[in-house]
Structures are given as structure tokens and as C-alpha cells.
Design goal:
The protein is of the alpha/beta class. The protein is about 40% helix and about 20% strand. It has 5 helices and 8 strands. Strand 1, helix 1 and strand 2 form a beta-alpha-beta unit. Helix 1 packs across helix 5. The longest helix is centred in the C-terminal third of the chain and has 20 residues.
Length: about 170
């Protein structure tokens, strides 16, 4: 199966999750193509999609929402997995992050699953405005993404794809 992997990422951390996902899939019998959401013109040729977004102020990135809106009919016909990246700290906070758009997206395209991963805050990469927001929220700086959790999730997707392929 050929799987599209795409992620909306402001500073690159969520795109790095997409890279881990694509690499893990490509190490299996399936193939993954990691693409920027802005470079996707069609979902033709893809048998499944894994779509993710960083969360900012409880919202998914605009380019991912636009991609889903433009391709909603096709996404309803494909197996789709969604992921979000955002909570930070140890333990992750907020533990259960309400994401404004995910419920609506899930109702619309009926994905197989939505998974939440920890986020990353690298002060050196932040804009002045984002630094102020982080300071106001007293958000902990650091990388709270778990490669093991990401790879384990992808392995569960691969198992599901293997089952679909046999059916």
C-alpha cells in the first residue's frame, strides 16, 4: 500500500514526527510518501493517509484544515489516521487537550483513529510573540515527543493495513 504522510508544522517539530512515521512505514512492506500539505494537489495513488498537525491555541494548523476541506470526499473513502502534537511537560500538560477542529474533522471524514503526541518547545526557534505566549503560560521548554510511542503507533497502523490488504 502507498500511504500519504503529511503534517502541519510551524517550527518543524510535528514535521519531524511525520518523518518518523514515514521512515517506520518504509521499513515495512508498505511505502510512505512524506509531503508538505501545501504540495498536495491530489490524493490519487494513495491507499491510506496519516495526517497530523501541531496544536497552537487549541487549533490545528490552517494548511492541514484546508487540505482536509479540499479533499474531504476522497478522505471519507480512504483509511485515515490523524495525529496531533502539542502537550508539553512531565507529565504532559494539558493532559487532555481540547482541539477545536479535530471533533469536526473526525465527524466529517471518519478516521480510523486520532492519536495525541507530546510536543516540543525550542525557545531558540520561537518568534517574539510565541516566546511571550510561552512565558505567560509558563510552558516548559523541551522535547516531549516519544519516538517509541510514535513508532509503536505506526506499527499498529501497519498491522491494520496488513489486515486490510489481506481482505
Amino acid at each position: 500500500m502507498n500511504i500519504l504522510v503529511t503534517a502541519g508544522s510551524k517550527y518543524g517539530s510535528t514535521e519531524e514526527i511525520g518523518q518518523i512515521i514515514a521512515e517506520t512505514i518504509n521499513a515495512s512492506k508498505h511505502t510512505a510518501e512524506l509531503m508538505s500539505p501545501d504540495d498536495i494537489n491530489s490524493l490519487d495513488g494513495f491507499d491510506a493517509c496519516i495526517i497530523g498537525s501541531a496544536i497552537y491555541a487549541g487549533r490545528w494548523r490552517r494548511e492541514i484544515r484546508d487540505l482536509i476541506d479540499a479533499n474531504a470526499d476522497r478522505l471519507q473513502q480512504l483509511p485515515v489516521w490523524l495525529f496531533s502534537s502539542g502537550p508539553v511537560g512531565n507529565p504532559l500538560r494539558p493532559e487532555q487537550q481540547d482541539i477545536v477542529h479535530v471533533e469536526t474533522i473526525m465527524e466529517r471524514i471518519q478516521p480510523v483513529e486520532h492519536k495525541m503526541f507530546g510536543g516540543k518547545i525550542d525557545k531558540a526557534k520561537l518568534s517574539r510573540v510565541d516566546k511571550a505566549i510561552i512565558a505567560t503560560l509558563n510552558a516548559p521548554v523541551g522535547d516531549y515527543r516519544s519516538k517509541k510511542d510514535i513508532k509503536d503507533w505506526v506499527q499498529s497502523i501497519i498491522k491494520k493495513l496488513d489486515t486490510m490488504q489481506l481482505a
